[in-house]
Amino acid sequence: MTRPPRPTRAGSVALRLMPLLCYLLSLQGAHAAWAPKPPPLSTPWTSQVSTTNALPDYPRPQMVRSDWLNLNGEWQFGNATAGQTPPFGQNLPESVLVPFPIESGLSGIKRHQDRMWYRRTFTVPAAWSGRRVQLHFGAVDWESTVYVNRQLVGTHRGGFDSFSFDITNHLNGGTNEIIVGVYDPTDAGSQPVGKQTNNPQGIEYTAASGIWQTVWLEPTPSARITRLDMTPDLAGSTLRLTVRGAGLSGQTVEAVAFDGTTPVGSATGSVDGEIRIPVPNPKLWSPESPFLYDLRVSLKSGSTVVDQVTSYFGMRSVGLKLVGGVVRPVLNGQFVFQIGTLDQGYWPDGIYTAPTDEALKFDIQKHKDLGYNLIRKHIKVEPQRWYYWADKLGLLVWQDMPLMDSGKTPDAAARTQFELELREMIDEHRSATSIITWVVQNEGWGQYDQARLADLVKSWDPSRLVDNMSGINCCGAVDGGNGDFADWHVYVGPGSSRPSGLRAAVVGEFGGLGLMVDGHDWSPNGRFFYYELVPDSATLTSRYVGLINSIHRVMNRPGLSAAVYTEITDVEGEVNGLFTYDRAILKVDANQVRNAHLNLIAASRQLNNLGLMQLGQYRSLQVTTPGYTHRYLRHIDSLGFTEVVNSASGGTLKQDATFKVVAGLADASCYSFESRNYPGSYLRHFNSRIRKDARDGSALFDQDATFCARPALDGSSSSVSLESRNKPGFYLRHRNGEVWVDALENTTGFRQDATWGISPPTWWSEANVPMGAYQSLQVTTPNYTNRYVRHIDSLGFTEVVDGGSNATLKQDATFKLVPGLAESSCYSFESRNYPGQYLRHSNSRIRKDARDGSAIFDQDATFCAQPGLSGTGVSFQSYNFPERYIRHAAAELWIASGFGSTWDSPASYNADASWNVAAPWAP
Fold first, then answer.
1. Would you say 736 and 623 are in contact if contact means Cβ atoms under 8 Å apart?
2. CB-based contacts of 470: which residues, under 8 Å, 6+ apart?
3. pLDDT tens for residues 161-197?
4. pLDDT 10s digits, 714-726
5. Which of 76, 460, 547, 896 is the most buried (most CB within 10 A)?
6. For the whole model, what pTM was predicted?
7. Contact (CB, 8 A) for 883 and 897
């Protein structure tokens, strides 16, 4: 056998390169089949995903037509460059599984790139002949350019909203080609991105580029319905419906509402005009009873139906209301504490896209199982099926607007785009029953025009609440000062903002308790993020339940109405979730967590009855007449008046407007009101005038000072009217600033003026402490009573002080108790030897710092005196974290709640948080 000639070195290289050259030459005509790439963690649904079942569910539950064609599945995929000619008629080299973003393992790509091409072919079903064909995209991040059969059919900018094109005139009779070009710079651009970043770390996560929601085709008539805008009107027992349409020429609308298969109401009208569909005796939608009506909407030309869709809706109302003297959000006219979690909507296998519809439902169902009634959908907008499950299962939703990158100031073009996408989000989801609040901005990320944007959103949708800025106390955020919420972020929390006459107090984020679970953690950069790390599930459960239990106090005062825990699941490097990122492990005891939530919700419902009318507690009587709710009943020169009381009011006025609620002096089933600053004196009527007098021991006085709580004369379920015990039919009533008992008059004005809110006291401190004098604070914990509060190197400690102590120590242990810097009915502690410097808390540690003129310093340096938690002495409650008190632990001073570990341990908490106000060591 003759040996073939040995190749030269150059020939050898050519032979070795030949397969690669052939492959490169063949790319125009071949592409690789789709295969998933390993995600960092698999979920229980990862293995269920294939090219034949990629999210096969109908994508638009609130506007359903029977005919549609799902285009999810395997598409061709290729790199793109700016200005490149679309690759018409060419096979692209890779395959991608639509609708999973390209960074996900399920997409089969698992990388980020700014520019990309998608390509696939389809055939229009023969049965659609004669109808228009709509091409729908659930969402594409971020800029999309769409071609059908080599023809441009449209472009779209916006990564979180759906869009459609009528492609009828671009179709042929056989195989049709779609090409979609996408540009997504993620946080290198200036568009809304939410939590996406090209450098995932901490609280920012992997990008989600390209097509990430269902793509589908739908046949429609030329004259067609394009959108249903639905707003329930409980007061009118109607559904307000506006039908949007296209291709119209004189058509009318007919709408019928159903309870199951039974019609309950119908109405006719015109496109773009409001139609009111009667819903008599409506069944109310709530988390406890998420009842949904069905709806059929027909577009008619004469008597002929030219288009028809089906939908659903819930009957519920949302608003603000004075409940127990505090402005609170109400659902169907009733306050219920909103307790929920921050839900980022991220998945380790699909990133922005849940692997299956059952997975999409899972997170919502688990909120229900754990006793939550709220989800804050955080800086992401979900597919419409997510809101369908929230509607159907019964969860309240705060919907965030995805924000621009936090490190940039948006220019004019970025602002215009932000507002376009904001309007699209609201229009697309305005009919979702579950959404009760729009959250416009968060922690100052990309912030601008805060007040204007909140007003703009309210004008677009006055039926819902608006949060102008979640986290107004955080991270350089600027509060617009308007909207319906004063929203704080408090880690670990919960703390509370303060309600006003116009805004409810809510905590948009708290918690962040971290627990790492081996085998179920993943971080893109190998580092993990949490606010407080705990060692095991039992500790996490105990710590979490303690936080929920502490909310009861701040719900009553200052009047917290909602709290959002961070978070329902881990997300990439964040390990704050109640579930692991893969949804495989619940880290807490479900029964304990559920019971804590249900107990909180049940307690909140009691405030809808007699508000805060509790025996032995200090309360104030708030005017509820519209336009006068900033006024309170107070005594002056022994006579009763109403007067404006706010944080700037003087201490005397605040004490005059505060009363202890006691059992009625003449009838224990009724009430009497003892003066806060004149113990033993009570509100009573004399010659019909309300006055404050000392109890004289007579039966007549006791009768004159006894008032019986009656249902509010103005019809409010959260306020009360007070009827004289010995003058039946006469009610406590204000007129012209004076307070009287007057005979009932059947007028709106009288009923409003004789209705009162039982509110938290205007004088916050329930314990009496000398004001304006130098004092020392003595430890009351047994065996440590020789120790006193002192500062050293700007930090707070306790130390043994006695007659032999040096002068510096004695001065360090002496403070002037002055009116609270942030609230005059509380106290601040001014250093004896450093005038102008005060005890304050920072990161929970007590320290001594110079007043810097900021509002946050003044709040941190203000403490309200309460009866000693141990039953002796006095406890000092943080003004801006009302569930926390100054306590000593291992000689250090902290503000603590007694629900944690180490310095926040429950061990000896009540004694450690109680103090004796003693004579000063350095007068």
1. no
2. 400, 439, 441, 442, 443, 485, 487, 489, 508, 509
3. 999 999 999 999 899 999 999 999 999 999 999 999 9
4. 987 778 899 999 9
5. 896
6. 0.86
7. yes
